[in-house]
Design brief:
The protein is built from three helices and no strands. With 94 residues, it is mainly α. The termini are far apart.
């Protein structure tokens, strides 16, 4: 079982990687013109919202007692997968 600190550090490291990827995708949208911006902005918005959900869940982990850790960990993993899916869906639209 992954301990809390390792889990949080792993998620934060993955967030940094995805943040860089989102920045690159956002730059592609900016270069793509008005049609691309209009078509792709909703996907970008979903990716940002999903990222914020991951950050919020990390905050819950920091605040949680040991008894709640397992439950929150599963919720955080689900939130993380949702974020990855949002980014992958966004990438697929390019």
């Amino acid at each position: 079982m992954t301990d809390r600190k390792t889990f949080v550090n792993d998620v934060k490291a993955q967030l940094k990687e995805w943040d860089s990827e989102i920045d690159e995708l956002q730059a592609k949208i900016a270069k793509g013109g008005d049609e691309a911006k209009q078509r792709l902005t909703p996907y970008l918005t979903k990716a940002h919202e999903a990222r914020e959900a991951v950050v919020a869940k990390l905050g819950e982990i920091d605040d949680a007692g040991e008894h709640a850790w397992d439950s929150i960990k599963h919720e955080a993993e689900h939130t993380w997968h949702s974020f990855k899916n949002a980014v992958n869906h966004f990438k697929a639209q390019l």
